[in-house]
Amino acid sequence: MSSDRKLGFDTLQIHAGARPDPATGARQVPIYQTTAYVFQDADHAARLFNLEEVGYIYSRLTNPTVQALAERVAALEGGAGAVCCSSGHAAQIMALFPLMGPGRNIVASTRLYGGTITQFSQTIRRFGWSAKFVDFDDLAALEAAVDEDTRAIFCETIANPGGVITDLDAVAAVADRVGLPLIVDNTTATPWLCRPIDHGATLVVHSATKYLTGNGTVTGGVIVDSGKFDWSASGKFPSLSEPESAYHGLVFHKALGPMAYTFHSIAVGLRDLGMTMNPQGAHYTLMGIETLSLRMARHVENARRIAEWLEADPRVDYVTYAGLPSSRWHDRVARICPKGAGALFTFAVKGGYDACVKLVDALELFSHVANLGDTRSLVIHSASTTHRQLSPEQQEAAGAAPNVVRLSIGIEDADDLIADLDQALAKATA
Ligand SMILES: Cc1ncc(COP(=O)(O)O)c(C=O)c1O
Fold it and tell me: For a designed S-S bond to 322, which of 10, 98, 155, 329 qualifies (C-beta 3.0 to 4.6 A apart)?
């Protein structure tokens, strides 16, 4: 818009990153199903390869459909730039890549998606990276875990599976004090419930597979950079603050300022790791994001009603939803996620492991799948599935103990979901 008016979330989720197609006027962002782009001439090609001019070269690096999505998510998160990736897990590796090197570590929350705990505790070791896991409610322990080789602090806004809300303001204050970037996985909150950059995050990562696309059709990820971190201050981030030999000695931070991290992630990260999002996937996610706020409002309202109903049920031991006044983390809702505590939580079934397994099998409307953030309501027994690779202590710390079931509440009629839980609980606890 020509005026300086700041556009609202509901407008940005439809318009940010998109403009009528310059070639055809197409109103919806076209799916640019192309691998390469014709250069104007040899000089133009050379300028693009030298990063002297921004433009399209090859779709492993950038693609107009994928770029529209990156700009949209950056706008919704309040970031300077964003990069789309082939999955949420790819986004996590890509987010760490410019920061890390052999011997470097990250300090991560114990409350994370089980796949992330496995990625960080095992797979990244093959790169010579490592992770230390700490309860992020213990800020002294978090700060004490940081050492000379630490290069980032990592947590989730609303932690999967327990629905525990992280005190991002407090964690960001620690990150600030120790001069490290804070990376926040905002998958389960989405920017509609929380914008981690407003709370001090440096980078935000997403599994676009979940609420952003919203209907279980796409695997994708996004990294958003706040553009606020000083990569040159400590000498700890040479990929961004020292000359890059593959770009004729370009110093990303000096040359590109707040866009340094984003450009590095494209020009080096996507170029060499190749964890690229495809244009079809980006198209579906763009479609999904157009209704993000409408869906999230319903997800949250349904989750609140169902959590309240479960908490009052004698067949249930406890419910972890932070939106319940009984939750240890309830006081964080107003500050971190004022529109609601998300739609993901666990509850403990009386009867333990066996009752949980029976419940999952007895549910009819809830689908038993390893996913979350779908329009459909989903259920999983984390201890025997997503968090199966973890030790009993890790499962307990992550909120995935054997006696709890995780729900991802969809946007169906809440009464129907409650009726389904009621009949399944009757079978599970008979
Ligand atoms: C919170 C969270 N982050 C990241 C991921 C990984 O995303 P993807 O499955 O798209 O790789 C998941 C997947 O379940 C998740 O729940």
Answer: 329
